[in-house]
Amino acid sequence: MKLLRSTAIIGSLTLVSRLLGLVRDVLIARYLGAGAVSDAFFTAFKLPNVFRRMFAEGAFNAAFVPLYAKRIEREGEEAADNFASEVGSMLLVVVLGLVIAFELTMPWSLNIIGFGLDRTAGADGVVPYDLAVTYALITMPYLLFMSLMALLSGIMNTREKFALPTLALALLNVFMISALFFAPRFGLGQADIGLALSAAVTVSGLAQAGLVWWGCKRAGVRLKLRAPKVTPGVKRLVILGVPGILSAGITQINLLVSHSIATTQASAASWLTYADRLYQLPLGMIGIAMGIALLPSLSRSIRAGDEAGAKTSLNRGIEIAAFLTLPAAVALYVLPEFFIGGIYERGAFTASTTEQVAKALRWFALGLPGFVLLKVLTPAFFARENTRTPMIWAGISAGINISLGVALFMTIGFEGLALATSVAAWVNVAGLFVLLRKNGDLDPDARLLRHLPRILLASLVMGAALWLVLPYLPDMGETHIVMDFVWLGAVAFAGFVIYALAATLLRAYDRADIGRAFSRRS
To answer: I want to staple 294 with a disulfide (CB 3.0 to 4.6 A). Which of 86, 193, 243, 379 is the partner?
Structure first.
């Protein structure tokens, strides 16, 4: 099964990046903890990331990949590369203008995401808002480099070359880990460590774009930098891309609002960020890998008139997502303090911080399968050049998230923002699923209907086993870091074994798929 093999390749390489990201977050937790400096850095780092996701990655690839794939099939690679060159020139001009605008207005524009940050100096003399402005000025050019990388990655993914673009993402973590390793050894304080991290973000963006550019040239892609021009191809991309940008924009504005609300409570933005980073590990490895592999696969099937093949790919995508995501969600819900304490709790990250982050992680865990399914369902619309429907449902989801988030924040506190995000994700999934069924683009086959309840039951069996051993687990963070990770590895491995045995006994998967996932002939 080519889809499973592509997902396995992308997921494995994404795991490398996510593990490095975990090391990065462990070091950030150790040296910055959850306080004024960490709130400032996370706010500054989120700003270019939000607009990167809005203008570059998801929205851009949703419109670009189907059009680029169509050019290759109908007109050949040279015509497709000319189209990519036209698009790249316009993309760079638009994004460069956005970066310059933010750089010139940063003291005011940072209010978009950080209006709740304190404007007064704390006991350490740090003014969180001013520090965030400084960090944001340094990190904003990251958006330009990552927009270029989005174009180049879309080209390589369409040509079924997934490895290098996925591996290049790890460079961000390599540079940030290097900054966190060397900065404390030069005696730098927390604020200066934040400066080093901000610089590492932008330098890593340049390195990532350069690496994927080299990969494209090596793959025979012929791109030319030319004067921006609104060609028919660019117009078509804009027509398809604007709903995607609005959809991504709604989602990202949603995140901005949640983060801004969190900044009104001291350290809450950091608590949510640490929880977000932990559930992003399985989300990035599974959901993003599925989305990257599924969109080109669906686009090719639909262009070839193979609707049955497209439906089969979508069924298998849902099945794979459930099989890999449900046990992760259950484990994070049952043992949030254990995982957070073992990974983060040392240095400036205290036991009380673990307790707060765990509150958010438990609610994020409930939404994890929904977040992943969104990565599976939306390509079914994008591959048919329908970016409007996901935009509408993203808007509905955002409205629910913001309104429910504000209400829950006022009643139960910052963790209500995580719960609202999970509820909104499931509403989005339900809406897209119903429309795909109504349009005849998704027909759950017998295999999917047979396996899904068995996967859920196997996950619950594993969760029950972890809950039973919870009283016998040590208090993480109170031992040496090596022992913490030994315990983490042991519990994770035990959970995997229990889940694998339960899934096997319940026949929750077809064993032949495992071999096909790694077969070059699949």
So the answer is: 379
Instruction: Give the Cα separation of 280 and 41 in Å (integer).
Output: 18
Hey, what are 274's tokens?
């640490």
What residue has token string 């940008």?
Answer: 245
Nearest to 373 by CA among 312, 329, 429: 429
Question: Which residue type occupies 401?
Answer: N
189: left (phi over 0), alpha (psi -120 to 50) or beta: beta
> In the predicted model, what is the mean pLDDT of residues 280-293?
63
- What's the Cα-to-Cα distance from 204 to each of 51, 171, 198, rounded to whole Å? 17, 6, 10
Name the band, by pLDDT with cuts 50, 70 and 90, for residue 520: very low
Q: d(Cα 430, Cα 434) in Å, to the nearest integer?
A: 6
pLDDT in tens, 145-158: 988 888 888 888 77
Contact 263, 43 (CB under 8 A): yes
Beta strands, E only, 179-318: none
Residue-wise burial string across 491-501, b where 16 or more C-beta atoms lie within 10 A, e elsewhere: bbeebeebbee
Worst-scoring range by mean pLDDT, 138-152, 380-394, 412-426?
Answer: 380-394
> Domains of the chain: which residue ranges?
35-250
- CA-to-CA distance for 60 and 167, rounded, in angstroms? 20
> What is the reported pLDDT for 298?
67
CB 416 within 8 Å of CB 362: no
* pLDDT tens-digit map of 164-180: 887 888 899 999 999 99
Nearest to 133 by CA among 44, 199, 51, 201: 44
CB of 64 within 8 A of CB of 151?
yes
465 close to 501: Cβ distance less than 8 angstroms: no
148 or 283, higher pLDDT: 148
